[in-house]
Design a protein that fits this description.
mainly beta
């Protein structure tokens, strides 16, 4: 099947998983019904808050301690295997 320009990447709404047609104020793909909604800050496993940032390849979460994390990784994050950097340890 031949690829058609613009159809190789179909994005879904972060809130309801429908086809995303617009971006909200944070740059997160969303449908027309959820374009006014915002993604809340999440807490990383290291204890710091993660902010939503908009980048070249789409939105991502940014932790002050761990660095950037994709939306999928931040949603499925578990508490095992992560340690604080040396400067944040007790």
């Amino acid at each position: 099947m031949k690829k058609i320009y613009g159809q190789s990447r179909n994005e879904n709404c972060y809130f309801c998983s429908k086809s995303a047609t617009t971006l909200n104020s944070q740059g997160v793909p969303s449908c027309i019904n959820h374009k006014e909604n915002t993604v809340e800050k999440k807490r990383c496993v290291c204890g710091f808050d993660m902010e939503v940032k908009k980048g070249k390849y789409g939105p991502f979460f940014l932790c002050q301690n761990c660095g950037p994390k994709s939306f999928e990784k931040a949603e499925n994050m578990d508490t095992q295997g992560f340690k604080l950097n040396k400067k944040y340890r007790n």
